[in-house]
Structure formats: C-alpha cells, structure tokens
Amino acid sequence: MTGLSLSLSGKRAVVSGSSRGVGLAVAKVLASAGADVAINYLADDKRAQAALDALKEINPSSISVKSDVSTPEGAGRLITEAEKAFGGVDILVNNAHGRIIRNMFLKSGWEEHQSHMDGILRPAFYLSRRVIDGMKSRDWGRIVNIGNNMLIQPVKGYSALTSAMGALLGFTKNLAAEAGPWGVTVNMVSPGFVLTEEAPNTNEAVRRAICDCTPLGRLALPEDAAGAVLFFCSEAGRFVTGANLSVDGGRIMG
Ligand SMILES: NC(=O)c1ccc[n+]([C@@H]2O[C@H](COP(=O)([O-])OP(=O)(O)OC[C@H]3O[C@@H](n4cnc5c(N)ncnc54)[C@H](OP(=O)(O)O)[C@@H]3O)[C@@H](O)[C@H]2O)c1
C-alpha cells in the first residue's frame, strides 16, 4: 500500500465558476473521487440548478453558491458557505474567469488588459487568500488554477488574456513557494481549446486547424482538463507544486 491513490474521500472542495464547462466537469470528477464539492456561478440560476442536480446524483452533500468571486465579498461568501456546509475547505480550484475579448494589439487599450487581469487574477487572489489560513492550520491543502495553453504559444489578438494568464502563472509559482512548508501545493492546469457549449462560436475551420496540429488528433473535452486537476488534488500528485501542465493533446510541448 503506497497511499498514492486518486481518492478524495473526506476532502472538501470549492470550484469557482462551475455551473458549466470545465468547472462543472472538474466538480463532477472531484465529487466522483469522494470529495464534498461546492459549485459556484454568477448569474444563470437555471443552469446552476441543473448542474447541482447532476452533482447531487454523484454526492448528495454538494452545494451551489451564487456569488461574484471577482469581488472580495463574493469570494468570501463562497468560502463561508462551503465552510458552513462542510466544516472547511481543503481543495480550491480557481476556474472562474471574466469576459474574454479578442482584439489586435494596435486596436486595444489598457482597459482591456486591466479587465482581463481583474477577471482572472482577482478571483484567484481573493479565494486563495480566504482559504489559505485553514489549509495551513491543517497542514494540507490543494490549490489548482485553470490557465490556458496560449500562455506558452500565443495566438494573435489575445494579448490581454495571455498577459493575465502570465500573471496567474506567476501567482501560482510564488504561492507554491510560500505555501509548500504548510503542506499546500499550488499548480496550474492549462487546457487548449475545449469543446464546451461555447465551442460552436469558434468557426469550424479554426477548430479543424487546431485538430490538425494536435498529435492526439482531437479537441479537448472538459473532462480532459478535469482529469489533470484530479491528479494535482490527490495524494498521487502530492510532490508536484508550482507546475503548469498543458492539457492540449500535445499541441504545445515544453
Ligand atoms: N473553453 C475553452 O476553450 C478554454 C480553453 C482554455 C482555458 N479555459 C479556461 O477554463 C476555465 C473555464 O472556462 P469555460 O470555457 O469552461 O467557462 P464558461 O463555460 O465560460 O463558464 C463560466 C462559468 O463561470 C461562472 N462565472 C463567470 N464569471 C464569474 C464570476 N465573476 N464569479 C463567479 N462565477 C463566474 C459562470 O456562471 P454564469 O453562467 O452564471 O455566468 C459559469 O459557471 C477558464 O479559466 C478558462 O480560461 C477554457
């Protein structure tokens, strides 16, 4: 018996921005591994209820919290509700992101860069700050930040997104360095294009072009990203911290 299992039995998890897409897949995978899971959303009550119903079929203790995690109050409320329901938070997945806008650099202003920074870095900062003391007191914690493989291989027009993701990676590494002695690992999972329900907004030719330069020959499913998150959260991933793992079928290597 090595103790290196993927089980999350007895762990309490919060996944921000998780009523659909990658976040919901992460929530389901963590719940399937045995964790109590709090999902979170911003506005769409109907979608969130459907997500919670599906999650409760996996683990009846699951909860859903409507709150804007890009504000300190909203982030605080999400963690407080999870602590009330479960008694603490052992795992935090920072998945919520603000609105992503594509704009060529010559047409963009600083405001776009600032809004991406606010939408991506602020939630990760506020939520991590709120859970870290509890994790430290228990000598165990997992924080996983969801990034984007465009950080390694830029796509024209995404300067604001890539810059914010770069900031998130810096945040990941620095917190990993500070929190390691407390038994807390901090890592980043960076998918490429994911087949969420938003995918049809990207035209077919672009999707085919991505497949063509992906060694594994297809686009990512939300569950593909979730599998990597599970690894980092479990005992199997216990000696990895400060890492950024691309989950893109090998499209970007290195
Ligand atoms: N999709 C891709 O192709 C792709 C590729 C690479 C990386 N990623 C990364 O994967 C993550 C998830 O992306 P996704 O495409 O799956 O997301 P998504 O489908 O756009 O889902 C966004 C979720 O976040 C919630 N949300 C948005 N803003 C929020 C806020 N301020 N506070 C709380 N909840 C908020 C939404 O709730 P409402 O529905 O109620 O608004 C929804 O549940 C992101 O970090 C993204 O950068 C995605």
What are its keywords?
254 residues, alpha/beta, Rossmann fold
Question: Care to describe what's here?
Answer:
The protein has 254 residues and is α/β, with parallel strands linked by helices. It has one domain: NAD(P)-binding Rossmann-like Domain (Rossmann fold), CATH 3.40.50.720. 44% of the residues lie in helices and 14% in strands. The chain contains 7 helices and 7 strands. Strands 3-2-1-4-5-6-7 form a 7-stranded parallel beta sheet, sandwiched between helices. It is globular, with a radius of gyration of 17 Å. The two termini are 33 Å apart. The mean pLDDT is 96. The chain binds NADP nicotinamide-adenine-dinucleotide phosphate.
